[in-house]
Design brief:
It is built from eleven helices and twelve strands. By secondary structure, it is α+β, with helices and mostly antiparallel strands. The chain folds into three domains: about 120 residues, Beta-Lactamase; about 90 residues, Signal transduction histidine kinase, dimerisation/phosphotransfer (DHp) domain (Helix Hairpins, Orthogonal Bundle); about 170 residues, 2-Layer Sandwich (Heat Shock Protein 90), CATH 3.30.565. Helix 7 runs parallel beside helix 11. The radius of gyration is 33 Å and the shape is elongated. About 20% of the residues are buried.
Length: about 375
């Protein structure tokens, strides 16, 4: 027996099982004889009995849902005329009345004069993956609506709360200026606590507004020179830098595509934190470095694959934190230090993370208690 014949026989024997496992079927149509063949996989996918229906184009087309018939017919005729292979996705109602999503790939066979002899194809049942995709899309839509509502609520709530907080501050100041000499030490203490609380509330509302505005950002990205952003931030922090005797060094920084205002805020928050959380025994030293990296160097992050990234490291010699909190610090309202020791709302690093996300980048930190921290930023050169 010819070995080739043995292989063909074996293939013929296992082919129906292969169709069942991979959930596909095959079909052919001889243009000369008009004969149409459907494999057992076709009947299984369409939930038809081989003895009850003749394999034909008409019988197959009758199973296609009404809204897909026209496009199926149009595409089939177009490619039949050009004899170009094609793939098409559409829906059918099976012999048992079940809705199914089908993907069909059709191939043409011609003679030496380009006359069509036969066309054949593969039908695959993609119902499960199609339904999963549709359900996922629906969840994404619902999630987007939920996020939009939460963002709008945060914006409106924080905005509307600004005025009563201002009034509390104003009347507290009037009490101190007009009636402060009539109050004993205990009364003045209560007033100062009220002023401190309203001041902290004002900071919190301002930060909430900043955070919510980042979610509504819809401007087109532009070329941004990071060096200019940093210089602008250092100029704004000049007094604080001088008062704390902070030393800041920086290598050359690149030009990337992004949002200048947000990137300035990013640098401001990170450098401001490095100064705030400084050591009590030594002057603050902040080092900023940059190098170009490939996104495939960080497979653990969902980075853009069509652009390289600017890796920017901002290191300090401050109080640091234990590495186990490296992810927690970017969560909104999360604080590792008491408000008495260090002021703030606990939103600063959440804002940094949101800005980085708006740029399709990543931010993470390495730190050790009392040994300083390093914040690593991955920013793409282009985000279009």
């Amino acid at each position: 027996m010819n070995p080739q014949n043995v292989d063909i026989e074996k293939l013929t024997e296992i082919f129906p099982h292969l169709e069942a496992v991979l959930n596909f079927g095959t079909y052919t149509r001889n243009v000369i004889t008009k004969e149409v063949f459907w494999s057992s996989g076709i009947y299984r996918i369409l939930e038809l009995d081989e003895n009850d229906i003749e394999p034909s184009i008409k019988n197959f087309t009758n199973l296609i849902v009404q809204e897909d018939v026209d496009i199926f017919t149009s595409v089939a005729k177009k490619h039949l005329a050009t004899k170009q292979n094609y793939g098409l996705e559409f829906s059918v109602i099976s012999g048992k009345g079940n809705y199914k999503r089908i993907y069909a790939e059709t191939f043409f066979k011609v003679d030496e004069n380009n006359n069509l002899l036969e066309y054949a194809g593969v039908l695959k049942d993609i119902t499960e993956s199609y339904n999963y995709k549709k359900a996922l899309e629906e969840k994404v839509i619902q999630l987007d609506k939920s996020n939009q509502s939460l963002q709008e609520f945060a914006y409106v709530a924080s905005h509307d709360l600004q005025e009563p907080v201002r009034k509390i501050n104003t009347f507290a100041e009037r009490l101190v200026s007009k009636f402060g000499n009539q109050l004993n030490d205990e009364g003045l203490t209560y007033l100062r606590r009220m002023q401190n609380s309203s001041h902290n509330m004002q900071i919190l509302l301002d930060d909430l507004l900043n955070f919510s505005r980042l979610s509504f950002y819809d401007k087109a990205p532009e070329k941004v020179a990071l060096k200019e952003c940093l210089e602008s931030v250092l100029n704004d922090l000049e007094v604080k830098i001088e008062e704390t005797k902070t030393t800041i060094t920086c290598t050359e920084l690149p030009v990337i595509e992004g949002y200048a205002t947000q990137l300035k805020q990013l640098f401001n928050n990170l450098i401001g934190n490095a100064i705030k959380f400084r050591s009590l025994t030594k002057n603050p030293v902040i080092q900023i470095s940059y190098n170009r990296v490939n996104p495939f160097s960080f497979p653990q992050y969902p980075l853009l694959k069509n652009t390289h990234y600017a890796k920017i490291e901002i290191s300090d010699n401050g109080i640091g934190f234990e590495q186990e909190y490296a992810e927690k610090i970017f969560m909104i309202f999360q604080r590792l230090n008491s408000r008495v020791e260090y002021s703030g709302s606990g939103i600063g690093l959440s804002i940094c993370k949101k800005i980085i996300e708006n740029h399709h980048g990543q931010i993470f930190a390495n730190s050790a208690l009392n040994q300083g921290s390093t914040f690593i930023l991955l920013l793409p050169y282009t985000i279009n």
